[in-house]
Amino acid sequence: MAETLFSFDKRNYRECQQMFRGTRDQEYYRGDFWIDDGSTIDVRSERKAVGAISIIRQRSAANLFFRRSRQHIREDATDLSILWFVKRGELAFSNQCGNKVARPGDFIITRSMSPFFIECRTGGEGAHEVLHVTVPTHILRAFVRQDFSTGLFMAMERAEMALAETLLTRVFEDETGLGEESARLLVETALGLVGNAIRASEDGAPARQSIADRRLEEVLRFIEVHLSDPQLSTAMVAKGCGISPRYLSFLLRLRETSFSELVWEQRLAKAKAWLSSSDPRDISISEIAYGVGFKSPAHFSRMFKRVFGANPREYRGDCGIDTAEALPGALVPAAEPFPEYPIGSSLLQ
């Protein structure tokens, strides 16, 4: 549930400089904050913390001002980035690079390590509202690779941005007891969507795909969907994608790989990830082997050791007995002969 970060009216608005960071100065960073001495003063900021990230909804019936100078930065080197989703009114931003004004539907990123001045202006309906997210810059860089040191502006016309705002709003407004890990996942997903939208905006219109590119995407999707089927073969993929085996080979050469190399590499990679993320008490090595399309655990074990230098049990670090592998030998299919790597396509027929 969101908590009140600060609330100002006619009675206490002159104390805003001492109160805008919360009761223990735990939010934002040092700067000069003041409120326009107008006829109506009603300012409220509510906060929802998700780990080191805060989602803050700020509503105001008065103009707000904030300035961060080089002196503030010397006194407080907190490196925070703020993602602003402007909903009502305007947000005017000024720094050494110039002046910009964001209006409803615009998105901004500002960073605390460069001096700036912000004015939150009420619109024609006498209200200002933003949803903004404070993120330690080192965390945001994992999602937004572009340079935003002096600010970043863009319109929220991309579907990714609208969805990111919706996710952040849902986390902020949640009163159902959403778990911390789930809230983190949703916030990280929103940040990932923001990063994708910014990257796509800078890249411009996507390059037109050729027919071969589209066919290759279909082939890769079909293989991904049917990877667990031990009968997966070139004939099966070609038929499923409506192409000839010869054309399938041509498409895979565009990726500089063969059918057998692609399939076995994917199976081993997925098995490795599955082993590292699962509990031996929940799923056995044999089940993982069958789950990624191997015909026998023995074949899987030999191939895994050939590629990764350790057998699945050693890699998993499981010192106990794998219950599924301890079943009577009659229940385990016979091992396939182990081919030289890279594996020939005949194994997949």
TrEMBL record:
Q: Does the keyword Transcription apply?
A: yes
The protein, known as = Helix-turn-helix domain-containing protein
Q: Which SMART domains match?
A: HTH_ARAC
Keyword terms of this UniProt record: DNA-binding, Transcription, Transcription regulation
Kindly name one Pfam family recorded for this protein.
HTH_18
User: Origin, by domain of life?
Assistant: Bacteria
Q: Which residues form the HTH araC/xylS-type domain?
A: 217-318
Keyword Protein transport applies: no
Organism, per UniProt? Answer: Novosphingobium soli
Q: Which SUPFAM superfamilies match?
A: Homeodomain-like
